[in-house]
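Reopening this one. Same input as before:
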Amino acid sequence: MSSADMLNVQMLPEWPSASTALRRFLKALCGDRGMKHADNAVKLMCIDFAGQLAGRLCTEALWCESETPWVDGALSEAGVYSAGGVCMTV
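Same output, byte for byte:
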């Protein structure tokens, strides 16, 4: 599974390990074989790749924020409200 695939499926319930694999990949990217590598070309590639991942994650976070009012409206119509991230029925 490539990093692009992990980004595409990280929020899907069918792929619960994708977000964990992505976190482990990012941790390795920041380690001795990534951004702490002696070769500057390796460091540059890692920084570029980390920037692409961060941009994609920020885009998804903004999209999720834009969908929040719609989700809240649908939950309230169904008689369900969220209290601290826990859904309760009315």
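So the earlier flakiness isn't reproducible anymore. For the record, The mean pLDDT is 78.
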